[in-house]
Structure formats: C-alpha cells, structure tokens
Amino acid sequence: MAALPVLRRRKALAGSAAVIALAASGCGDDTFSLPVWHAPGQNARVGDIMIRYAHVAEPQGGPWQPGDDVPAYVWLYNKGDNDDRLVSASTPNAAAVDLVDADGKKIADGVSLPENKLVELERGKTHLVLRDVRETIRGGDFMKLAMKFEDAGPVTFNIQAQVPVYDKSPSPTG
After folding, report:
1. 0.85 cut: is pTM over it?
2. Is the confidence at residue 129, as pLDDT, over 70?
3. 33: nearest Cα among 75, 73, 74
4. How far apart are the C-alpha atoms of 130 and 113, rounded to whole Å?
C-alpha cells in the first residue's frame, strides 16, 4: 500500500512535466509576435487569421449613446500561405457593422488580407464602424462581435469599449 502514494506522485510529476514541455514548446504555432505595447483589446484566432487588439474606440466626453456610429479597431494577421479577405462583421449591439475606408466611405467588397501580412484596421485607415448602436456603451463595457472571413470562416468573440484616458496633469491639491 505504501507504493500507491509514490506511484501517484510519479504520475503527477510526469503529467506536470508533460504540461510544462507542451507550454514551453508553444504547441500552437503562434509564432507571430507584436512589439511590447500596452494596447487595449481582445485577441482571437480563426483558421490562419490572428485577431489582435480588437476594441471599440474610447468614448469622448461621455458614453456612446443609442443611435451613435461607433468606430472599432482591430489588427488582422494572415499566417496562411494564401490571401484571405474579411468580408463582414456584425454585433447584436448595432443595426449594422460597416467596413469603411479612411474617409468613412463604406467598402462593399471587404478587406484584403495578404498572406503573412499584418493589416491594421485603425483610426485614419480602413476600420469598422458600428452603425446606430442600440444601447449606451461606456468605457469598459463588453459586447459580442462576429467577423466572417472568406476562407478562414466565421469567429465570434467579446470586444471591449476602450476605457477613457482622462487628463493626467498634476492635481492642484497633490
């Protein structure tokens, strides 16, 4: 009977070693790395598409209100050997989600994602706009966002409204 606890410890040790080896080996082929940057946002993956820093823009001067058109930003990295395309996005929190160019004009045919390239959907560039949001969105709120890619397929994940960054000037009492 004394051998039973020793056997359990050995199995637990072997199991722990296997978990550590898998974690250290990176078992998911996620070799894409970004510079150290404390950016807001959610990360996800579908097929060869890595989704990074997905977030709703920071509300300015108060929460986003029902009826507002709200920008959303995301970085997309196509790790595949073939081009792909972001064809659409949607959320239950808005009447529609449009892909727009830097001037805010709707892009009907989606966004091209060249193989092994990073595409930044950001302010001043092509990005997403949540049209006619259905409820108040405060900094820190989460909502579902679905994205559909031509080859990689659909993915749904939570995105967060960026928490406002307030004036960081020294306090007059501090």
Report:
1. no
2. yes
3. 75
4. 21
